[in-house]
Structures are given as C-alpha cells and as structure tokens.
Amino acid sequence: MAAFFQSLAPQAPDALLGLIALFAADGRAGKIDLGVGIYRDDMGATPVLRSVKAAETILLREQPSKSYLGAEGDARFTALLSDLLFGSEPAFADRLTGVQTPGGTGALCLGARLIARAAPGATVWIGSPTWPNHEPIFREAGLAVRFHRFLDPATGLVDLEGMLADLGEARPGDVLLLHGCCHNPSGAQLSPAQWQAIAGHCLRLGLTPFVDIAYQGLGDGLDADAEATRRLVGQVPEALVAYSCDKNFGVYRDRVGALWVSAESSAAAATCRGNLLSLARVLWSMPPDHGAAVVRIVLDDPALRADWEAELAAMRARINGLRASLAAGHPALAPVAAGRGMFALLPVGPDEVGSLREEQAIYMAGNGRINICGLTQASVPALVAALQPHLRPAEGK
Ligand SMILES: Cc1ncc(COP(=O)(O)O)c(C=O)c1O
Is the pLDDT of residue 203 over 60? Predict the structure, then answer.
C-alpha cells in the first residue's frame, strides 16, 4: 500500500522553542534569556495578573453553564474590546463587525480565510522584517504574499520611502498588513505623519489595510497605542483588524483575541459577518471561552478594570525604563529608546548572535531580536558590555 504521508516534507522545528531548550540546559550562572516573546517581571517570572486571578475567581463562582456559545464567541467580550480598541461609538460603528477568535493568530487566520473567499487573487503585502508567523498564515490560506521594505537595517528606523516605493507595485484589491503598535520584531514606531502617508497610499492605490494589533497598552498607553488603528479604519472604506489579548492581559495559553472587519456599508458588514461565522464554524466551530470570559469580567467591572490598567501601566513603565537604559549604554543602541513594545532588533548578525550565546550565555533570536523583558536594570550593563565589541562606534566619534 502506498505510504499516505510520504509526500510530506520535513519541517524545521521552531527556532525559538529550540532556544528555550538550549537556555534551560545551560548551567552558567548569570545567563540571560532574551528569546521568547512573553512579558517577564524583574524576577524573570510571568505571573498571572492580579486582576485576571480575581476575575477567574468570580468566573468559577458565578459561571452558570458551559453549554455552547455560537461561532461568534462571547459577544459582550467583543463589544467591550471593541470600545477599548476603537473608542466608544466610533464614526464607523455601523459598518464594523467583530467576532471572538482563538488569540491573535486565530484572528489573522480567520481574516486570511475571509480575504481568500472575497478576493482569492489578492496579494498580501507584508513589511520586512515581521513576526515569522505572518507569511505562512496568509500562504496557508492560499494567498500570494509579497514583502516590502519597512525597516532600514543601517539606521534601525522605518524606511517609509522604501516602503511606499515597493508598494507602487501593488494592484488595486491587494491587502497591506500593518502592525498597529509595538512592531514585532523591531519595536519601530510609525509617526502620525507616516501613518497618514500610508493611509493616503491605501486610498490612492485601492489597498485594503489589515492591522495586526497584539500589544495595545504595552507601548505608550491604551488610547495612544490604538490611535493609529482608529484613524486608519476611519479613513478607508474597508479594513480588517486582528487583536490579541494574550500579552496585555497575560493570558497567553488561554488564546484570547478578536477579528473586526469594517465594510463599505452596514449591509456589507452583515454579509462579512455571515462569512466570518461560516468560516469560524469550519476552523474551530467556536472559540475557547475561559480567557475571553475573564477579559470580559475585567473590562466590565470598574474596580477590576482600574486594577488591570494599573498592572498594564507598570508593565509598560518597566519595558520603557529598560529601553531607555539599554539605549543609554551605546550610541548604536539609540533606536531602542525610540521604539515601543517588548521587542528590539539589535544591530548584530547571526555569527555575533552565536558567539554571544556561546561565550557570554546571552540568548536571543538569530536575527538579533531581543525581548526587552528578559532584561533587568541590573543585567543591562552586562548586555551592553557583551555587545560592545560588536557595535559600530557613533558617527563622527
Ligand atoms: C505581531 C503579532 N501578531 C500576532 C501575534 C499572535 O498572538 P497570539 O498569541 O494571541 O496568537 C503575535 C504573537 O507573538 C505577534 O507578535
């Protein structure tokens, strides 16, 4: 009998998971893990948030049933999250529709499948570098993917000119994927003027933006981090927005997210909703409930919500404090202070990443991406000292 699975190609294991195993096996004192993308406190721990624990206690006590919810998930969760992201009653509210998804990844997959249904010939344009899961998510949905310049490797800053030039090759009906805030892997921020230029480009070229926002509140604040997404969605006739609660509520394994589509009209939004629900039915039937119910309880209760906002503000302050300290260590690290979110790209190549790991017990992704939260104020000098021989001196010095 023919071996059914023989045609499958072997797949490379996830590089970051491999890094976790290497780090765990490293017996050196003072080793530093800057690899995996989760928030860590000053003790290197990722505890469950106080507000989340309190909401879980309430859920345990008061949940009346575990019977099925529909494919849309927890509608109150999505409504509260919509307010958090878009503000209450945005001008486009009547042409906006949202559903709960299993994390931000689920939201991106659902959005990709909707695009493949609506416009199977569309190309999805993605900035380079990006979160490694973006490209396969769209390709697995059967869509073409092309990359445009986003970050100038020489300066560590956004290359808007290069981005818009590359997008000159896009066709009307193509999709442009954008990070709403806290770019992964670089932390690079688009200025309001740059967002405006991108919105103008989308309108001129007939591109549909797909915003991926996975870190609201971990950059400059809840409203500040949502501002670009709000403006963009308000300006274009159609858009998709994928959201993850997994980082800002610290509920990673509970898989909490949502997808919104803003359509040309409320009738078009209703049709999009029907399609989202039918796609969700075949992908996961309905999303996991626990994490979304917890987020709903936190957002619905003024005291818990205030506590969550305080916890989020503390995470943000820790990240931005570490960014400032690291940037102060060497002129070549200056872009780290201007960036936001958990990640930064260090100006080091794969060989240097290898020697930092082998000689200094400092672990980071092969492209030089670091999770800022893997640092403490006490370990920043050790990182700067280890990087010193690999960094270019400042211009003119
Ligand atoms: C840019 C970006 N989008 C989406 C996600 C997916 O998040 P989730 O864990 O909720 O699927 C991540 C996770 O690392 C991310 O960095």
Answer: yes
Q: Which residues pair with 212 in a beta bridge?
A: 179, 242
Q: Is the pLDDT of residue 394 over 80?
A: no
Q: Is the CB of 246 under 6 A from ligand 1?
A: yes
- Specify the CATH class of 15-48+304-387 in words: alpha beta
Residue with token string 């859920």: 59
The predicted structure's pLDDT at residue 390 = 86
Q: Rounded to a whole number, what is the largest CA-CA distance in the chain?
A: 71
* Beta bridge partners of residue 99, listed in sequence order: 259
pLDDT of 382 > 90? The answer is yes
Multiple choice CATH, 52-302, 3.40.640.10, 3.40.50.1000, 3.40.50.11420, 3.40.50.1100 = 3.40.640.10
- Percent of the chain whose predicted confidence (pLDDT) is above 90: 92
83 is catalytic: no
The yes-or-no answer on residue 397 being catalytic is no
How far is CA 158 from each of CA 29, 170, 190, 347, rounded to the nearest angstrom?
37, 19, 7, 14
